Amino acid sequence: MSQPKFYLTTPIYYANSRPHVGSAYTTIVCDVIARYKRTCGYDVAFLTGTDEHGEKIARAAADAGMQPGDFVAREREHFRRLWRELGISECRFVHTSQNPDHVKSVQWMIEQARKAGYIEKRKYEGRYCIYDERYVSDSTEPINCDICGRPAELVSEENYFFKLSAFQDKLLELYHTNPQFVQPEFRMNEVKSFVEGGLRDISISRRRLKWGIPWPGDPEHVVYVWYDALTSYLSGIGFRGAERSKDFEKFWMGAEGPNEVVHLIGKDILRFHAVYWPAFLWAAGLPLPKTMFAHGWIYYEKDKMSKSKGNVVYPEPIVKALDELTGAKVGNDALRYYLLRETVFGQDGNFSRDALLTRYNADLANGLGNLANRVLTMIYDYCGGQIPNHHDELRETQEHISESKVPEAGLARALEEGCRERPQRVGHSLDQLDFSGGLLELWNLVSLSDQFVTQCKPWVMAKDTSKRPLLDHVLYRAAEALRFISVLSHPVIPDATQRVWGQLGQAGRIENVRLDQLKWGGLKPGTKIGKPEAVYPRVDKKQAFERIEAMENEIRHPASVPSAAAAGQGEGSLATSHSFAPSRAEGPLATAAAPAAAKITIEDFAKVELRVGIVKSAERIQGADKLLKLLVDIGDEVRQVLAGIALAYAPEDLLGRTVVLVTNLAPRKMRGLESNGMILAASVGPEGKPVLCTFAEDIPPGAKVK
Ligand code: MSP
Known about the structure:
The chain is an alpha/beta fold and 706 residues long. The protein folds into 3 domains: 5-295, HUPs (Rossmann fold, 3-Layer(aba) Sandwich), CATH 3.40.50; 320-327 and 336-343 and 356-517, Orthogonal Bundle (Isoleucyl-tRNA Synthetase, Domain 1); 602-705, CATH 2.40.50.140. The termini are far apart.
């Protein structure tokens, strides 16, 4: 039988600045769904990408002093890189500019709609919001955009119009006969009342704008960015207008049997998807997606996180700080778990670092991590590192022993039943996109397993050889529960569950386990387990806060950190300058996203004490690839400074070198060594390679730089 098909899309993100936790949220949720659907046996296509045309992008490029093509090519990489760093599973990436296949698709869509009589040229005068790329009012009176609240701009031009009004009845019928088309239900109600209120035709071309897809047959116009962007859901999977790839036929047209097309979007772009998109598809004679789900917003400090407001939290500092502080790859899991567990999907959520770290320590470190470590260590120590025999015959005995004598008997049954029913229960939650509910189900099983181990006290049984079968019986059950929990939670926390999988002695990738094959008793006695290692080491919240904040600041206020390459603040800071802090070329963009970083007064600058120093000695630090330990003579003293420049400079090349040092920074400890200052360096190229600041003349150490 052919595999069922599932095609899932994120919105394509505006390539006007780097992604934040709000944008990562949609992609992470999609990744969880894609992974889950694969474990259910679906052939999954998962699409994300960047939206690169339109007024907003053209202006952002102009602000950055760049050509739009170069600008979006650079911005696109932020997204690609972040999805890679966040471990987003196999997905296709579509971009709308510099993509001939996409151009062909959009022009074909327009042609079809024109041939079908849904497009005509008219004069337009009104107000347009460049941030939301939409017409706000047909009146020329000043008005604010009802989505973002900013003043809409006056436009007056002759445009091509799409006859959206012709689809009003058809849309209402669609909503009526297919109530699943928009989810959750309350969003469907919003859409319905909007359409019932009457639809007006929409302008779908721009005359004064050059940065867009040329209008077929009228190169003075470009195609409206939403027509262009929505078509990426087709071109991203191999649609080329009249020519179509096998994947497009399979995932969109349903050529190989039942298929599902699902768009996951934020609530702010629902109207474009639920009203415009079906009409554009009908006008081109193409089938509609099965459903779209509009999720809420992730707020930060009570405001919607948004690039244009400059109030954003970035995912990288959280992930990297947790990885760095624990010495394990835990940051992605922590972010994913927190976002899915804390926010009820569909509703708005609030992002808080404090809550994230609390969840990490409570649910991941003390919860699953501790359970895994306890169970695996006991198997390692008491069972010669092999999965013990299940001794199922003891189950019979248990049933004949009153629970007051052997309290664990009842718990053992509850645990087994809990595991047996979990795939179905968790699956049900995930099918409903109730991620927090599914995780709650799973963490109840974590608690039950913990309680089982605590009450059975295998460490006491281990001292009495007559209890050997019972010990095996208990540890087998605990390990089996751990296997169930790992497989079922893998879509949300893929990194640690893969490690537990390996430690349980299981070969291959955990994501290849099909849910319908997850059966109680599947763990083979005698399997050799790996050496137990903590999968989620605890973090010190205060330390984590400081580290995350420092990394965030490097992104948000690049101007306040003298050169992102900030060589003196050591390994962390350089590592972050590579990955997070925008390079010089990226500066204007980052400033646009964070207006607070703009100007400082001369008094602010005077607070930074800069002095000339001569490098007296330089050596590598064991275990820290990027760090060098330098002794720098600054005239009246010799300072120890840790600098994250080891990938760019060999220690011997630095001896006698003149450098510039920030001398009044608070000391900082790294790798147990104190760093007392920061060496300035330029950040060069996309990788932010550090190049030390120096002088053409001879300068004595200690001279002030101002
Ligand atoms: N380019 C359009 C989408 C075109 S799809 C054919 C766009 N891009 S966007 O970058 O502004 O937003 C992309 C997605 O990110 C939207 O679904 C939006 O809701 C989501 N989010 C942006 N900020 C968000 C939060 N703070 N919280 C949750 N989601 C957020 O719109």
